[in-house]
Write a structure and sequence with these properties.
With 250 residues, the chain is an alpha/beta fold. The chain contains eight helices and seven strands, in the order βαβααβαβαβααββα. The protein starts with a strand and ends in an 8-residue tail after the last helix. The structure holds 3-methylbut-3-enyl trihydrogen diphosphate (2 copies) and magnesium ion (MG).
Length: 250
C-alpha cells in the first residue's frame, strides 16, 4: 500500500498525541540518489540533503514522545557502491555530529549506533563514539543509527556467541529462547520496532532488522528521503494508530 498524500488534512503533534504513539519507529531512509538524479545533481548531494531531514525528523520524534528512533544509514551491502560515494557517506556522520551534537545534547537525545563499527574509518568511529559518550547521561529519545548494519550478519553473530556460551557453560541449551536470543542482538535493551517506514517506493527490507520486525506495522511511501517532511511522519503514525495489531490473537 502506498501512502504519503498529505495535501488534504494537515496533522499536528497535538492530534497525534491524543492516542498512544509507537515506542520505537525504524526508518529505511531511501531515495537520496534518485532525489539528486532528478535534479541533475551528484548522488552525494542527495545524501547531504537527507542529513537535514534526519535533524528535522529527530526533533519531531522527540517532541512526540517516541522512545527510540532507529535510522538505517549504511548497510553491510552498501560497500558495493563507488568508493567516492562510500567515502562521502562515511564523512556524513562526522559533519552531522559536528553540526548538530550540541543541539542533540540540549534536547536530551541519547545517540546510539549498531553495526559492525570495526570496519569503519577512524574519523567516523571517533565522531560516533564522542556522540555516544557526550549524550550518555541523557534520557530522552534514543537516536539509534544503523551504520554498517546487516541483519543476517547480526543474527549469525548472535548464533556464534550463543554456541560459544553454551560450550563454555555460560548458557544452557534450555535457556535459549526468544528473550535470551534477543539479548545477543545489537538491539539488546531496545524494544522491537512498532512501526517501520521506508521511503522511495521500494517495498523490501534490504537486510534490516529481520528478527525485530516480526510484528511491526509497515508504512511505505513513494517520497524520496530528502523530501520526507514532518507531515509524512505524522501521517505514518496516524495510520499506525488506526491499525488493529493482533499479534496472532483475535
Ligand atoms: C539511501 O539512498 C541512502 C543509503 C543507502 C546510504 P540511496 O543512496 O539508496 O538512494 P537511491 O535508492 O539510489 O535513490
Ligand atoms: C537500504 O537501502 C539501506 C539504507 C537505506 C541505508 P538500499 O538503497 O541500499 O537498498 P536496495 O539496494 O535498494 O535494496
Ligand atoms: Mg536506495
Amino acid at each position: 500500500m502506498f501512502q504519503g498524500d498529505t495535501t488534504n488534512n494537515e496533522l499536528t503533534v497535538h492530534d497525534i498525541k491524543q492516542q498512544p504513539v509507537p515506542n520505537h519507529v525504524a526508518i529505511i531512509m531511501d531515495g537520496n540518489g534518485r532525489w539528486a538524479q532528478k535534479r541533475a545533481l551528484p548522488r552525494i548531494a542527495g545524501h547531504h540533503e537527507g542529513m537535514k531531514v534526519v535533524r528535522k525528523i529527530t526533533k519531531l520524534a522527540n517532541s512526540l514522545g517516541i522512545k527510540v528512533l532507529t535510522l538505517y544509514a549504511f548497510s553491510t551491502e552498501n560497500w558495493k557502491r563507488p568508493k567516492t560515494e562510500v567515502d562521502f557517506l562515511m564523512k556524513l556522520p562526522v559533519e552531522y555530529l559536528n553540526t548538530y551534537l550540541p543541539e542533540l545534547i540540549e534536547e536530551n537525545v541519547q545517540v546510539r549506533v549498531m553495526g559492525n563499527l570495526d570496519a569503519l574509518p577512524a574519523h567516523t568511529i571517533q565522531a560516533v563514539e564522542q556522540a555516544i559518550i557526550k549524550t550518555s547521561m541523557n534520557d530522552g529519545l534514543t537516536l539509534n543509527f544503523a551504520l554498517n548494519y546487516g541483519s543476517r550478519d547480526e543474527i549469525l553473530n548472535a548464533v556464534k556467541h550463543i554456541a560459544n556460551d553454551v560450550r563454555e557453560g555460560i548458557l544452557q541449551d534450555e535457556q535459549i529462547n526468544e528473550e535470551s536470543f534477543s539479548s545477543y542482538l545489537m538491539t539488546k535493551n531496545i524494544p522491537d520496532p512498532d512501526l517501520l517506514i521506508r521511503t522511495s517506493g521500494e517495498i523490501r527490507l534490504s537486510n534490516f532488522l529481520l528478527w525485530q520486525l516480526a510484528y511491526a506495522e509497515f508504512w511505505f511511501t513513494d517520497v524520496y528521503w530528502p523530501d520526507f517532511r514532518e507531515q509524512h511522519l505524522l501521517q505514518a503514525i496516524d495510520d499506525f494508530q488506526k491499525r488493529g495489531r493482533r499479534f496472532g490473537g483475535v
